[in-house]
Amino acid sequence: MVTFVDPPPEPDPTLTDPRVLLEGYLDYYRDAVLRKLDGLSDEQLRTAFLPSGWTPLELLKHLAFVETRWLRWGFAAEPVPEPWGDRSPAAPGPEGRWHVADDESVDDVRALFLDACERSRRIVAEARLDDVARTGGRFDGSQPPPSLIWILFHLLQEYARHVGHLDVVRELADGVVGK
Fold it and tell me: Per its UniProt record, what InterPro entries does this chain match (predicted)?
């Protein structure tokens, strides 16, 4: 049986403030990720539905680390002990495969994601859109670091792409179709 799920509304179409619009859409897509995972069993969350082999829970952990890599380690240059902690210990680093250990619960990964999003919101709240990322974290100064507005647009496109992936996975997992 196919169910159509109405998402919460997008940010107000009359918004003209770029900051409010970007922050609103990021939260809209953060919510969409959680909504698309809601209702899947632990087994479904740990099952790969596509030939590429990633699982929905691995994608959620990946997005937590995307937030961390771009805003905490990247923009704010905070020390992050494992910026690629979403990758397999067998192949760590940016090219490694996404990984969730057997002892990591769904609640653990969800809490990691929610914490990363909250930390990102705090970093963004304390900066201007035209501020550039500090060097010393993700950015070593060998190239001009990106601005906060660039990073936020990058995050927005990454979320939109991954929410589309979850649309497909959810339909394959249990037939739920959403907008």
Answer: DinB/YfiT-like (IPR034660), MST-like (IPR007061)
Q: What's the pLDDT at 145?
A: 96
For the chain, the structural domain boundaries read 57-162
Q: Please give the full DSSP string across the chain, using - where no structure is assigned.
A: ---EEPPPPPSPTT---HHHHHHHHHHHHHHHHHHHHTT--HHHHTS--STT---HHHHHHHHHHHHIIIIIIIIS----S-TTTTB-TTS-STTSPB---TT--HHHHHHHHHHHHHHHHHHHHTS-TTPBPPSSSS--SSSPPPBHHHHHHHHHHHHHHHHHHHHHHHHHHH--EE-
Q: For residue 141, give both structure tokens.
A: 């100064």
Evaluate whether 55 touches 43 at the Cβ level (below 8 Å): no
pLDDT digits (tens, 9 = 90+) for 60-117: 999 999 999 999 999 999 999 999 999 988 877 888 899 999 999 999 999 999 999 9
Number of Cβ within a 10 Å radius of residue 91: 11
Q: How far apart are CA 159 and CA 26, in angstroms?
A: 8
**Cβ(80)–Cβ(68) under 8 Å?**
yes
